[in-house]
Design a protein that fits this description.
- The complex is a heterodimer of chains A (429) and B (164).
- Chain A is of the alpha/beta class.
- Chain A is 31% helix and 17% strand.
- In chain A, a hairpin with a 7-residue loop joins strand 12 and strand 13.
- The longest helix of chain A is centred in the N-terminal third of the chain and has 17 residues.
- Chain A is globular.
- Chain A starts with a helix and ends in a 10-residue tail after the last helix.
- The chains are: A alpha/beta (429), B alpha/beta (164).
- The interface between A and B is large, with 59 and 47 residues.
Chain lengths: 429, 164
């Protein structure tokens, strides 16, 4: 019987010829990522070794990545102290893939991992962040875990008792119309199958639209696959994956690519014609409350956010800069831009996008999670609405339970910044 | 016997259980003060110690969806609450098992705030309404962790056994 992408990856990671959905396996981990919550991971890690008489040493410091992104620079003494404890642990354990609060190497974990070539096709990647699903864009099986689970990975080098997930195959046919982006595709899919439609399953992406999609767009789609409940999203690696690893991530060694078997067994197959898609909006307060833009156009907005692990990459910023060039952000809206990494920030400066955005009135802030999860910057006032390229719109998400968050693509966000109301980018603006 | 102290709907996200703005607080000993922080009345009762251990939160589908933040499980484990839901999001369920927070998957459960429940190995019996509802067992893959009393003792056994 043929295997899906995830079955192939888990067979390799467990040293077996084959595994099938439902098997319980203990895969070896190729990369274990944490952000600020490494402070909790290390607390739990030390707890494992308490009173054992054993030295608490991580299984392999070269396979652990820690990136500060959620609250950078620290918003409170508590965060600063947690970050300090993590720095000390990183130094003591010799953890190499550590990205501190810096303009050269820093950024959001789900951009830092791919742009540094830390993720390769076929890897098993775990992260203490639900959007670890992003890294399926490079053909890895990447999924989110909790902090205590990560402490166990640091100790053992494997993830315990993983049930091999079933797979939903999504085939995206056709070409994206102008101003319709991978974000619109994934919002449409989440709306179609619901926030629990892929619970405990992996979504494997195929079709012409994916073959032609750059890695940045694949990262957006895999990032938000978790919003349909999926354990992960994955794109079979191809020539584009190799291009990205070589040209962007600077990977020199030969990388092997592989796809699922032609006779792989899928739980479900979903076909979507992207040429018929319109810009999509996820309305409050669930990500699966998705409507075509026509149904919500005209809704007044007080804050626009472009950035995050979902849509803070160079082409996202480019889309916004092209729409805003020579124009002005409406007076009654504040527009916040958070590039996904220091590197992207510098590339966007070199191309003039940052100047364009700032001249239009946007505020460009340092790379990081920013207002997405309401811990740090850009909180909303009572009764306000935000239109954001981030990934979640749950009640209270942007720091205020008495506010609303609408999710959209960078094109919709930029077009709406000019008007102060939700605006279709296909209609000029 | 346990009383239902809070009834919630579907898709209760970790942003509702443990709002992101309190995420700088990580230790399980400190997280319970922010449980359902935006649900002021319930949070106040919890902080005043008015909710006895073993009390039940009843919820609909997809409880714990969203972030992987473990605070969402530890803040409910601290006051020793039980969550009975139609089903749970994957990471939240794993975090609960890892930390020993009691979760009950009960797809047909009907219960209101104030109802008295008896939770057995395979059924939830609503003593107030007289109805009983089947429990779906937790994932069999996680049984060894449940039996060990959580993931920390389980991994400690593994480390001591040298089974790296």
């Amino acid at each position: 019987m043929g295997m899906t992408m995830v079955e192939k990856i888990l067979a390799r990671a467990t040293g077996q010829a084959a595994v099938k959905a439902g098997d319980v396996v203990e895969p070896k981990v190729d990369l274990a990522m944490s952000h600020e919550n490494a402070a909790l991971v290390l607390n739990q890690f030390l707890e494992i070794y308490k009173d054992t008489g054993l030295e608490a040493k991580v299984w392999d410091p070269s396979k652990i990545a820690i990136i500060f992104d959620h609250r950078v620079p620290a918003e409170s003494s508590k965060t600063a102290t947690n970050q300090k404890k993590v720095r000390e642990f990183v130094a003591a354990q010799g953890i190499a893939k550590f990205h501190d609060i810096r303009g050269d190497e820093g950024g959001i974990c789900h951009q830092i991992l791919p742009e540094n070539g830390y993720v390769r096709p076929g890897y098993v990647v775990v992260g203490t962040d639900s959007h670890t699903t992003s890294h399926g864009a490079l053909g890895a099986f990447a999924f989110g875990i909790g902090a205590t689970e990560m402490a166990s990975v640091w100790a053992l080098g494997s993830v315990l008792n993983v049930e091999v997930p079933g797979t939903i195959k999504v085939v995206a046919r056709g070409k994206f119309p102008k101003h319709v982006l991978p974000k619109d595709f994934i919002l449409h899919l989440i709306g179609k199958i619901s926030a629990e439609g892929a619970n405990f399953k992996v979504i494997e992406y195929h079709g012409e639209a994916f073959e032609k999609m750059p890695t940045s767009g694949r990262l957006t789609v895999c990032n938000m696959s978790v919003e349909a409940g999926a354990t992960s999203g994955i794109v079979p690696p191809d020539a584009e994956t190799l291009r990205y690893l070589k040209e962007v991530a600077g990977v020199r060694e030969t990388v092997a690519v592989f796809g699922p078997d032609p006779d792989a067994v899928y739980d479900q197959v979903i076909e979507i014609d992207v040429s018929k898609l319109e810009p999509q909006i996820a309305c409050p307060h669930t990500v699966d409350n998705v409507k075509p833009i026509g149904e919500v156009a005209g809704k007044p907005i007080q804050q626009i956010v472009i950035g995050s692990c979902t849509n803070g990459r160079l082409d996202d910023i480019e889309v916004a800069a092209k729409i805003l060039k020579g124009k002005k952000v409406a007076r009654n809206v504040r527009m916040l831009v958070f590039p996904a990494s220091g590197r992207i920030f510098r590339e966007a400066m070199a191309k003039g996008y940052i100047s364009t955005l700032m001249e239009a009135g946007a505020l460009v802030a340092n790379s990081g999670c920013g207002p997405c999860l309401g811990v740090h910057q850009g909180a909303l006032g009572d009764g306000e609405a935000a239109l954001s390229t981030t990934n979640r719109n749950f009640k209270g998400r942007m720091g205020n339970p008495n506010a609303e968050v609408y999710l959209c693509s960078p094109a919709v966000a930029a077009a709406s910044a000019l008007t102060g109301v939700i605006t279709d980018p296909r209609k000029g603006g | 016997m346990a009383k239902v102290v809070l009834k919630l709907g579907d898709d209760i996200s970790t942003d509702i259980i443990y709002p992101g703005r309190f995420m700088a607080t990580v230790l399980p000993t400190e997280t319970p003060q922010y449980a359902f922080a935006d649900h002021a009345e319930f949070n106040a009762r919890l902080k005043k110690g008015e909710i006895p251990p073993g009390s039940v939160i009843v919820a609909g589908k997809n409880f714990g969806c969203g972030s992987s933040r473990e605070q969402a499980a530890s803040c409910l484990k601290g006051p020793d609450l039980v969550v009975a839901a139609k089903h749970f999001a994957r990471i939240f369920l794993q975090n609960s098992i890892n930390l020993g927070l009691r979760t009950v998957i009960c797809p047909d459960l009907e219960a209101e705030e104030g109802d008295e429940l008896e939770i057995t190995a395979d059924k939830v019996i609503n003593k107030t309404s007289g109805k009983s509802f089947d429990i779906v067992p937790l994932p069999k893959a996680r049984q060894a962790i449940i039996d060990a009393g959580g993931l920390i003792p389980y991994t400690r056994q593994r480390v001591l056994a040298g089974k790296k």
